[in-house]
Amino acid sequence: MTDTLPGTTVGATAGVVGSTATTRPAPVAGAAGAAPAAGAAPAAGAAGAAGRAPLDPYALRSDFPILATQAHGRPLVYLDSAATSQKPRVVIEAVDTFYREYNANVHRGIYEIGERATAAYEGARASVARFINAPSAREIVFVRNATEAINLVAATWGRTTIGRGDVIVLTEMEHHANLVPWQLLVQEKDGDLEFIPITDDGLLRLDVFEVLLRLKPKLVAFTHVSNTLGTITPVAEITALAHAAGALVLVDGAQAVPHLPVDVQALGADFYAFSGHKMLGPTGSGALWARRELLEAMPPYMAGGEMIREVHLRRSEWNDVPWKFEAGTPDIAAAVGLGVAAEYLIGLGMDRVAAHERELVVYALETLRREVPGIILYGPPAGQRGGVIPFNLPDVHPHDVAQVLDRFGVAIRAGHHCTMPLHERLDLVATGRASFSVYSTREDVDALVAGLREAQRIFAG
Length: 461
Ligand code: 7TS
Fold this sequence. Notes:
The protein is of the alpha/beta class. Helices cover 37% and strands 14% of the residues. Bound molecules: ligand 7TS.
């Protein structure tokens, strides 16, 4: 394993993207082929060039084959993108092409398809780095999902850093993936967890956070966007305060990278974790970004092949980062697909994606309030949240609501959304949740409204 990345970074995936040029919509949506050569484009934070027309979700819907299907004989209205997003054709084809044309293991084949697989895998790493403006692709560790990324940090950095009495600060609205790993860690190390409370609107109480910082926490770990309330947290502000108090910062970006421009350098955090399958990529793909010196200092997570440089019977030496953290044969196809998804989103322009979803949230909140009498909507005001609409109808369990909506082809999630402590804090058993992505439209919201009115009619009788 060499110390440097193969030079063919995006080349391998760009070829895959390019192969479907004929299926692309007009340049307004123009995502798929817009991927410029590595290094030639602005950072993802700036991608999406000012002056471009607003994102046209109607034009790009034809990129997503599943959106042309039906559920219960009605057009599928997919409003569960926070659980997992749908996949554009370029991603599906990239996975397909890998298996059809160059399926081989990575970092070992001294033959053509093996080299092609390695180039595509490492090219995907470069695309992901560019997508979040990481300073180097060497700071991107491929994992299966955000859950694995957070567990990796807890099990390596956490187990070597956290000791008796050490404090980790979380928030009351974390997904279980950014809560339970820290519970296990402090149980093992006899440390403590503290929580930044939220307001009833789902905003973080930064005044209380400043008081918690007097406990000199070792880590502050929090979500960038709440999967349940949609709250967008002030990452740069929290990070600056945490750093000033001597804490490191882990950001759970699972619900941010699909929807907002994310520039890890501008945010200033130390660890940034996310899943690929929520950002139009395949399941089984995800990434952990961490500052290089942290990755260098952390012990390995899992052990075996790939992550070693030398092995002797009684001791081994580790590979360079990031491969030190990628034991065993990775999910190569998923990583390649993730790289294509990152390029697709860069091509759309994440600022245009964010503007589209902001506009849709305003429309949804207004329309639901106006058209669905008595609906209870949770979360912060439109300007402070991403494309997530949690709600309840009075006296109807959200599971029943979801079942009625399903009859109309409308897919939402109902339940606790893996945020049980947040539901406890808000004194709720469960909520219904509609969530958006690049392909969501006002008509999707209208279908939700029609379904909710029908649910009200059924349950009133
Ligand atoms: N963090 C946040 C903020 C999430 O929303 C999720 C998944 C995760 C972590 C874990 O992601 P995974 O890919 O490792 O499973 N959230 C949801 C959801 O809201 N509905 O289904 C999964």
